[in-house]
Amino acid sequence: MPGSYVATAPSPISLDPGGQRMLVDGAPVALTPLEFRLLTALLRGNGRVIPREDLRAGLGEWAGSRSRSVDLHIHRIRRKLGPRAAALLTTERGVGFSLRATPAPVESH
């Protein structure tokens, strides 16, 4: 049909740079500055896997920085996202993390 289109569901996650917070399904969720920077990098990746080392380099050095700091902050972000949105933040084992705009399709067996 001319002029028709298939609408895609909006992402349940967005960022409010002025407030240094994320919005999950429109509800504000506070983030630490490091969590905000991580989430910004993941959103800019548009669903691509961002290597752990790239994420770590983007955070820079800070007091308490350790090799597993990225993993710790990703864990905290997942808790804040809630179950529906947390399913969008995936781990590529041994490589890094990605943030999809929409949930992966459910496979039926």
Distance between the termini: 33 Å
Strand order within the widest beta sheet: 1-2-3
Order of SSEs: EEEHEHHHEE
Number of domains: 1
Structural account:
The chain has four helices and six strands, in the order E-E-E-H-E-H-H-H-E-E. The protein has 109 residues and is of the alpha+beta class. It has a single domain (13-99), classed as Winged helix-like DNA-binding domain superfamily/Winged helix DNA-binding domain (Arc Repressor Mutant, subunit A). A hairpin with a 2-residue loop joins strand 2 (21-24) and strand 3 (27-30). Helix 1 packs across helix 3 (69-81). It starts with 12 loop residues before the first strand and ends in a 10-residue tail after the last strand. 19% of the residues are buried. Mean pLDDT is 78; it is low at 3-9.
Short description:
With about 110 residues, the protein is of the alpha+beta class. The chain has helices at about 35-45, 50-60, 70-80, 85; strands at about 15, 20-25, 25-30, 50, 90, 95-100.
Supply database-style keywords.
4 helices; about 20% strand; 3-stranded antiparallel β-sheet; about 110 residues; Arc Repressor Mutant, subunit A; alpha+beta; disordered N terminus
What's the arrangement of secondary structure elements?
Elements: E1 13-16, E2 21-24, E3 27-30, H1 33-44, E4 50-51, H2 52-59, H3 69-81, H4 83-86, E5 89-92, E6 96-99
Antiparallel strand pairs: 1-2, 2-3, 4-6, 5-6
